[in-house]
Structures are given as C-alpha cells and as structure tokens.
Amino acid sequence: MFVQETVLTDGIAQLSYLLGDTDTGRAAVIDPRTDVEVYEQLARKHGLSITHIFETHIHADFVSGSRSLAQRVGRATIYLSGDHADYQFDGEPVVDGDSFDFGSFHLTARHTPGHTPEHLTFEIAESDHRDTPWAVFTGDSLFVGSAGRPDLLGEGQTAQLAEALYHTLYGYFLKLDDFVTVFPGHGAGSACGADIGDRLQSTIGYERRTNAFLSYPDLESFCQFVVSDAPPVPWHYPKLKKVNAAGPEIMDRLPTIPALPPDDFRRVAREPGVHVVDTRSMLAFGGGHVPGAINIGGRPEMSAWAGQMLDLDQRLLLVVESEDDLDRIQRLLVRTGHCNFAGYLSGGMKAWEIGGLPLETLEQIPVQRLRELQVSDGDLTILDVRAPDEWASGHIPGSKHHFVADMRDRINGLDKNARYATYCASGYRASIAASLMKSRGFSDVSNVPGSWGAWKAAGFPSEQPEGATA
C-alpha cells in the first residue's frame, strides 16, 4: 500500500515528504529538515524503512537534515543533483530521467533549473503507469500561486536563472496534464518565492489558470515580472547555502544547553561573541529583561528571524518563559543553523529579579495612546519596521520606514537621542527592532503591541507612498 506523509515546518513554511510502500517496506524522504526524528517516527508508524533521501536543491532558508537522517536510520542513501551542483559531501548523483522503484510507485527525477542551477523535481507514478505521473514534488521551482525566485545567487546569475526558470515553467510544468498534483517545497510565508498561496498543494490545471508566473509566455516580460516581484533576500540565505553545500554537521541529538544561575549568566553575557536572546512575549520582555537582550519571541517565525538577525558563529544565551519551552525553542533555532549555545537563565527572569540584578524595561504603547501622541507630541518618530512591500501597501501617516532586517549590522540615519515608537504588523518584529535599538544605545524607544493590525482595527487613518497602489 502506498503511504504519503507531509511534514509542515512552521516558521520557515517548509514542506518535506515521506513516501513509502508498505508491501516492500521501502520509503523515501524528500528535503528533510534539521531535526529529523519526525521522519523516523512516521516511518515506524507505517512499518517502513527509510532507504532513500532526496534533495531537490541546495537550500537557502533552513539547514538540511539529509546527513543527520542518513546516519540516524543507518542504511539510507542520499541522492543529490548531478546537474550543475556544488555539493561537497558524499551522495549519489541524480540526473534528469533517473528513476527509482519502490514497488507500487516510481519516482523519476527531472532537472528543473531556475531557482538554482541544480534544481530537481521528482515525478511520482504508479508502477503500472510509469509514463503517466500523477504528482510532482516541485521543491522550490513551482509553488502554489508562485514560483521559486531566481535572484538568491546574486545579480551575476539572476538573468541566467530567470531564463532557466522560464523554460522550466513553460517547457516542463505547463506540458504536464492538468490532473497532476503539485506538492511544493514551501507554503505561505516563505521568502523563497513571492506571495506563495496558503494551500499546501495544488494541481497543474489550477496553477495554469491562476498562477501569475504562468501567465507570461513571452520570455522578456516574464523575466521582468519575476525579478521585479521578488521580496528582499534574507540576510542568512547565502550563509545557509554555503552550509548546505558543504554538508551540514550531523546532529544525532539536540545540543546541550547549560543551565546557568543568574550570576553565571551575567558573567557569560559579558564574554565576546555572546548574544542574549529573550524568547518571551513582547509584553513580558517589556516589563523587565536582562540589559542588552534582544527580544525574538519563541513563536514559529523565530527560526527565520533568528536567521535574519544573528550570526551563525555567535554563542547564544537564552531567556525562556519556562524551562519546559527549552526543547521547542532550541528546535526553532537549530533549523536555521544556530547550534552554539552558551546556556540559558536557570529559574528565568524571576531568579534574575530575586538576585537583585539590573533590569531594563521597554515601554509598550497601545495604538490609542500612539494616536494621541501622534497628534500632541511632535518629538515622537513613529518607525515602521515592516518589509518594503508592506510599507507600500499602507502605513501610519507621518511614520518613517526602516526595515528591521536592515538594522542587523548597523542602524543608519537615526538619532540615538530622539524618541521612537516602533511598529510592524503585530508587534513581533517591532519588538525585535526596539530591543535591538536599545541594545545599540538608543535612549528612548517604545514598542506598539498589535501594531498595524491594531491600528487598522481601531479605525485610525493610513497613507501610502506617493505613486503606490494598494
């Protein structure tokens, strides 16, 4: 019997797949994430043995778990693209047309460059109908309502990859039958494509009729569209490309995080290369935190924002709401390569407070109060830290735009002695920005909980940049 399991990794919106045949007992995993226990558990649930591990391409947004999974299950082979690939670790090369027999079904590799030069798509077909695939596992080439961006390898390769993507979409995917199911490598929220749809799967027929990337049969207009529509490249993507090409370190278990009492935590925090990351909610952080800490809340999107804001070689000191959260927080961090932990605050902020150690606060301004200050306080600068496309779609009148991801290395153009209130869509990224600003010596910074969402819900006015359209 054929078995398929889809694993959605929230925060990075990554989709990986386990496929197997219970009669032969063989299974394959496509694009495993870093913490790989989930695939072993799913295989065990169905009585399967993972024998094949496939990589569609060299990933940029998360650390691949292929090497860790291969070691964990003991007898699996890793299969890597043999077309224009830059893998520097052992694996069996796969080229266009290679086929793999699992009993009741076959997987066939198709070279689908564009997002990357080496990218593969895997067709799945019943063994009795090998020439009629019923689904494709598209990796980052074709998404629901979108397609893989061709600009992640730098301007020097963007034009060439955009042309390759055009031929992949129009010369391969659009020639498939309408009934073929599309299983992509990412869902909504990933920066690997522009405006990826909410659904986790689609069909070629539906995408043919609705996907804007499939509506530009002219190469020139397609290339112009696909490049101009791309969101900013996240800072950590080129770093993780190198990690995944070289071969990520094998992680047979989550790294140990030492429990540090407050005095030891404070001492280690002063060591070079150490960063204090407070994973509590923005309101808890605002009420009192370790001086110099950055607030990256322990929600699923922590994976992406830790990747954006933290260096891979930094040693991380964690503040958690509860020690029960530690395992979950650690998984969110290792998925984007952060495995160097200096420790966590044993007993949490309560122990820090009881120990009489210094506290900092971050004022939280409700949108109603922000509206009052906007009218009465001419010295307050309202700072919109959302992405450029969000800013262009509408923002608080009189606010200034400064994307939080651009604050990572330096904060240019802002007076450290001025008064600021930061906002984003919900307050999550605004708290990252505000805490980062305070750690860099800005004297008067506040955060806006609820942020743009709360501002709109309250019925307050908005504006758009001149010439922008909603």
Describe the structure.
By secondary structure, this protein is an alpha/beta fold. The chain has three domains: 2-246, Ribonuclease Z/Hydroxyacylglutathione hydrolase-like (Metallo-beta-lactamase, Chain A, 4-Layer Sandwich), CATH 3.60.15.10; 259-354, Rhodanese-like domain (Oxidized Rhodanese, domain 1, 3-Layer(aba) Sandwich); 363-457, Oxidized Rhodanese, domain 1 (3-Layer(aba) Sandwich). Helix content is 29%, strand content 22%. It is built from 15 helices and 24 strands. The chain has helices at residues 37-45, 66-73, 155-171, 204-210, 219-228, 237-246, 262-269, 282-287, 302-309, 326-334, 348-354, 367-376, 388-393, 428-439, 451-457, and strands at 2-9, 14-21, 26-30, 49-54, 77-81, 92-94, 99-101, 105-111, 120-126, 135-139, 142-143, 146-147, 181-184, 202-203, 259-260, 274-278, 294-295, 315-319, 341-345, 363-364, 380-384, 400-401, 419-423, 444-447. It has a six-stranded mixed β-sheet, with helices on one face. The chain has a six-stranded mixed β-sheet with strand order 7-8-9-10-13-14. Strand 23, helix 14 (428-439) and strand 24 (444-447) form a beta-alpha-beta unit. The chain is globular, with a radius of gyration of 24 Å.
